[in-house]
Amino acid sequence: MIPQSFITDLLNRVDIVDIVGRYVQLKKGGANYMGLCPFHNEKSPSFTVSPTKQFYHCFGCGAHGTSIGFLIEYSGMGFIDAVKDLAQGVGMVVPDNDDKIPPQQRAAQQAQSLAMTDALNQACTFYRAQLREAPNAIAYLKNRGLTGEVAARFGMGYAPSGWDNLRSVFPDYDALALVESGLVIDKVDEDGGNKKRYDRFRERVMFPIRNTKGQVIGFGGRVLDSGEPKYLNSPETPLFQKGLELYGLFEARQAIRDAGYVLVTEGYMDVVALAQLGFPQAVATLGTACTSTHVQKLLRQTDNVIFSFDGDKAGRRAARRALEACLPQVSDNKTIKFLFLPQEHDPDSFVRERGADAFEQEIHEAMPLSQFLLREVSTEHDLSTPEGRAHVQFEAKPLLQAMAPTSLRLQIVRGLASLTESTPAELESLFELSKPVSVVRRAPPRQGRPKPIGLELQMLRIFVSHPQLALQIDEAAQQSLDYFGQESADSLRHLLQMAQDLGEHGTFAALSQQLKEVTAEYDSLIAEIAAEPESDIEADRVWLSSALRQIKMDTLKQELNQLFSSGLTPDQVSARYREITAQQDLLAREAAAEMTPR
């Protein structure tokens, strides 16, 4: 777990204007920067980035957050990856309690990664230049209906014939980074003697594969004729694991948001051709089956994922593997569908023959995951016999066990129960599902705490806006928060503790990021603060001091009113009366001193 102190330090070192500015064109507008929101379609800017708050906020769609939150939402990174990306940019090393690698070894690994990244970038530049001088490759791409514009957008290139063309790119052709990055192959004699090095990719159209940060991490190469293999991928490297990456995801991010869904296809050419034909929201797996990590990445980008497969047996097998990868990620607020084209078509050929509108209709009518699952387990069995129905249940059991106890799982169980002449309760018991949905989905009891208003709300706003002010709240002041009632006081003390833990360098951005990780209770308040001009910390300090003093005064007054009916002895009443009035006098003098001009 990354310490909160590290997150706070990181957010204090990075500049959100620089981070967001990598992806969004920003212009200065008063104290803030403005741009078109990358999270929804808009023609006039409503997206603001505050350098003082280190926070972004969109007045159109309500999106808001810190630099970490922006990378998570925009790039689809996980929290840890976003933190590591920001830390790398400012020269910080993310602490890891489980990291037992010695510092020297860690530094060597980082140097290796940088060397491989540099080699891949140089190779990509070389391949792109070669494409401009390769009429056979240009003719091939034109024959596939691709323009130079779309080829440039995806950074496509060409690896010419010859065994060592990269020798002209890299002065040190024997560098270790070239073989580690998969650009070259070392062939050693059987006796382990002479070693011969040669380029991995030759006479192929080159598709650079990028990670979510846009860095080239590998290549896919397609032959121009009928040679084998038709597609050749970079090998697995420390930078590139096929089961973790998706081709075209970096290029498709904005189009996915605009379309409201992502289309998952089977190959590089599908992605590029569909982008050419008006469907830039397409991505592809990299010559491997869809994995659960692929699905996680896609669901970070959009709530709607549509898998497009060829209608042949290979396409059906790929769809089944995709179904199995999806099941652990299924939730009630996400939609996953499966699109099967006619057997003679892939997406590219379908759109060219029948048109974009026909393909759009196919997407609209794609089969929901629930329907596909039930069809998969029941198609080859005779539901009119007990044995056939038992076989269906046998096949469905591991699939349903892979799902979380969601409402969708309950709907699938009900559908399966209808097919197999059973009841949902019987199937949940028979399948030993982790938790019966009817139990786990019960709504939690409603909380009786009213929504904060007035004095309590303003105090919350100040502590979130300026966490460092929480350091002036001593134990006595915290006790006075009982004035708001037990639940509200506990909530305020919890927020105070989080703010105080950040120390004197605590900021709105740091506390907002921490709150986001533990509760959604403050989301609307954070959004309101982000949308407003930054409040003056000194004015808030004076108001907070005055408010706490008023709370103490009101508490003392209330105790004084009840003192004579408190059941104390006359001597005790007299003593407590003197204590209360002395405290009231002290608070009055503090108030007068604060009002006196200095």
Explain what this protein looks like in three dimensions.
Keywords: DNA replication, DNA-binding, DNA-directed RNA polymerase, Magnesium, Metal-binding, Nucleotidyltransferase, Primosome, Transcription, Transferase, Zinc, Zinc-finger. RNA polymerase that catalyzes the synthesis of short RNA molecules used as primers for DNA polymerase during DNA replication. A zinc finger (CHC2-type) spans 37-61. Residues 260-342 form the Toprim domain. Pfam families: DnaB_bind (PF10410), DnaG_DnaB_bind (PF08278), DNAG_N (PF08275), Toprim_2 (PF13155), Zn_ribbon_DnaG (PF01807). The chain has 598 residues and is α+β, with helices and mostly antiparallel strands. It folds into five domains: 4-89, DNA Primase, Chain A (Alpha-Beta Complex); 106-233, DNA primase, catalytic core, N-terminal domain (DNA primase DNAg catalytic core, N-terminal domain); 249-365, Dna Topoisomerase Vi A Subunit, Chain: A, domain 2; 377-440, Pheromone ER-1; 454-595, no CATH class. The protein contains 26 helices and 16 strands. A five-stranded antiparallel β-sheet has the order 1-2-3-4-5. The chain has a five-stranded mixed β-sheet with strand order 13-12-14-15-16. Strands 6-9-10-11 form a four-stranded antiparallel β-sheet, with helices on one face. β1 and β2 form a beta hairpin.
